[in-house]
Every structure is written in structure tokens, then in C-alpha cells.
Automatic annotation (TrEMBL):
Residue ranges crossing the lipid bilayer per the database entry: none
Protein's UniProt name: Metallo-beta-lactamase domain-containing protein
Domain Metallo-beta-lactamase: 149-307
SUPFAM superfamilies xrefs: 4Fe-4S ferredoxins, Metallo-hydrolase/oxidoreductase
Species name: Capsicum baccatum (Peruvian pepper)
Source organism superkingdom: Eukaryota
Length: 334
């Protein structure tokens, strides 16, 4: 056996340099982790635009507008994010603020202390749109960051309930939906707003509907793929209308018994009036405007969008007058 040799000065220096470099690397990793923690903590800190009190919005807000239309008495836009401009002053306002908190897609709304009644608030979902004029139509809440904070809806009907687009999956919402009869179908307006569609399909056993032009690897298993340009009848009371523009396969759902058009991201009321979300258009603005024209021939008085705010017309004549004015203004800008 060969005799062991003493380490040379070169080996000693190399070993020392290696250990020193390793220690420096560890210090750098710890420093990066520390900065990440500090950054994460600072992002979750209250924005200075919030008024003091129980509720606040942090710096992770994506400006999806959800809290501002769910609880307009308390939330507003400040800069390019939301903020609390007035704390809830009654139980009804506080309930809506907590519903907005649970619906926030990025969990950007907080309370100073854990709310004692949050479990009771969870039971209020899905929320009726209008119990008097739209019985059986609900806002699911629990918006998902996977769909950039889009709203989803439940239609309760004897022929089988319909989920319109996908909320964020939670077991509490699943239980609440099952108490209302679950869902026979999940209608997906377009590829942007599919969120947790697979989980909902697995848990509720609902068939998913999506235009074939919107299908990708994440939705390849969708049960019903629409082909062509429609329209398609799901039943006597439900018509699906192809409205290309925002995306090539965008489709709206017309629910005839309640005169509602579920528009996805095709058309909505924004904070400053009607919008087709030109900034996020993936196909063609002129084509989208042509699809808006198709809405003139549809009989509805409510618009329930994915992004944007819901709208109610007095009658079909008011709806058409409003759409024509929007189209005239937009056409002049092309």
C-alpha cells in the first residue's frame, strides 16, 4: 500500500479557497432569502392609500375591480390598485366587504384581526344576483388568479344547473353548490376564464363546454367542443352565440327565461362606460365590434360579464340604443 503523502501548500490553499467560497455562497443565499422575505412581507403590508380601520388592501392587488363592484361603499381605485376609502359602517357593508375579501383572486384584502364570522360569510356563496328579478341566478364569488379575477355564475334550472366559467375551487363553495343541485354543465366562454375547470368537473361531475378554437393542452379533455360558428342550442331556454373578437372562439350564453346574456370578456360595463377590453384583445378589434353588432338581434335585458360590471337595461329598446351609441363612437376611432 502506498504511503499517504502530506498535503501540499497548493492543496491547502485550494481547500481554503473552496471553503471560503462555499461560505460566501451560503451568505449570499441567506441574504437573498432574507430580502425575499422582506419583499414578501412588504408586499403584504397595507397600502398607504387605505384609511385606517379593520379592512385594508395590500400591494399584491392586480386591479381586477372585483372588490370595487362587490363593495363599492368601501373600496375604490387609488393609483393602479384598489384601496379602502371608507371602513364599513353597518353590518350589510361589512358583509359585502368580507364577501369581497373571500372573492379577491390574489388574497390582497385583509382585516387587522381574523374575522370571527368568516365561516358564516362563506355560507353566503353563491350570492343571488337579484332575488326579485333574477331568481335562480347567482354570482359564485371566489374569483381565481388563473382567470385574472373573472367572475363566474350559477344558473339553477330544472333541466340541470349551469356553471358559467370557473370560480376558484374551494370545498366550502363545492358544498354550497351541491346544496343548490350541483351542476350538469360548465359552460366556458373562452380559454382565459377556465381557471379550476378540471377540479370542478371531477367534483361535480359536470360536462364542460368550450369552443374547439379555444381548446389547448389544459382543456383537451373538455367533454363538449363546439364547432363552427353556431348558434348552438343547449336546450329550448339556452342558446350559445359565437362572438369572435376578444378571442377566436369566444362564445356568449343567452339564458332566455331571465333575458340574460353572459358575455365572458366580449362586452361589459367598465368603470367609465361600455368596454370591449381592447388592450387585451387577442384576435381583432374590428371583428369584436362586428360581434357586438350581433347583440342587437338578441333579446336580453341583463349583461353578466366575466370581467367588468353587470348591467341592467329597462328594456330591449334601451339596450339597442345604448349598443348603437357605443358602436358609433368606436367605429369613428377605427
Amino acid at each position: 500500500m502506498a504511503a499517504a503523502t502530506a498535503p501540499t501548500s497548493f492543496h491547502i490553499r485550494r481547500s481554503f479557497n473552496y471553503n471560503a467560497n462555499l461560505q460566501n455562497s451560503f451568505r449570499k443565499v441567506r441574504s437573498v432569502k432574507a430580502r425575499s422575505i422582506i419583499t414578501a412581507n412588504s408586499l403584504r403590508a397595507p397600502r398607504p392609500q387605505n384609511v385606517s380601520g379593520e379592512f385594508f388592501v395590500d400591494h399584491t392587488c392586480i386591479d381586477c375591480d372585483t372588490c370595487r363592484w362587490m363593495a363599492p361603499e368601501n373600496f375604490t381605485r387609488a393609483g393602479d390598485m384598489s384601496a379602502v376609502f371608507k371602513q364599513p359602517s353597518c353590518e350589510e357593508e361589512r358583509l359585502r366587504a368580507l364577501q369581497a375579501l373571500l372573492s379577491c383572486p390574489t388574497s390582497s384584502i385583509h382585516t387587522e384581526k381574523p374575522p370571527h364570522d368568516i365561516l358564516e360569510v362563506q355560507k353566503t356563496f353563491p350570492i343571488p344576483i337579484d332575488e326579485h328579478t333574477l331568481p335562480g341566478v347567482y354570482h359564485c364569488g371566489y374569483h381565481s388568479d388563473k382567470s385574472f379575477g373573472a367572475a363566474s355564475y350559477l344558473i339553477v334550472r330544472a333541466e340541470g344547473n349551469i356553471l358559467v366559467d370557473s370560480p376558484r375551487y374551494t370545498t366550502q363553495l363545492e358544498n354550497n353548490l351541491k346544496m343548490l343541485g350541483g351542476a350538469r354543465y360548465m359552460f366556458l366562454t373562452h380559454s382565459d376564464d377556465v381557471a379550476d375547470h378540471e377540479k370542478w368537473s371531477n367534483h361535480l361531475g359536470c360536462e364542460r363546454i368550450l369552443h374547439s378554437l379555444e381548446v389547448d393542452h389544459s382543456t383537451a379533455a373538455v367533454e363538449i367542443k363546439l364547432e363552427g360558428s353556431g348558434p348552438w342550442s343547449l336546450s329550448d331556454d339556452v342558446t350559445l352565440v359565437h362572438t369572435p373578437g376578444h378571442t377566436e372562439g369566444s362564445v356568449c350564453l343567452l339564458y332566455k327565461p331571465r333575458n340574460i346574456l353572459f358575455t365572458g370578456d366580449h362586452f361589459a360595463m367598465g368603470e367609465r362606460g361600455w368596454t370591449i377590453f381592447e388592450r387585451y384583445n387577442k384576435l381583432s378589434v374590428p371583428k369584436q365590434l362586428n360581434s357586438v353588432k350581433l347583440m342587437l338581434d338578441l333579446d336580453f335585458e341583463w349583461i353578466l360579464p366575466g370581467h367588468g360590471r353587470r348591467a341592467k337595461f329597462k328594456d330591449v329598446e334601451e339596450k339597442n340604443s345604448s349598443l348603437r351609441a357605443f358602436l358609433e363612437t368606436k367605429m369613428q376611432l377605427l
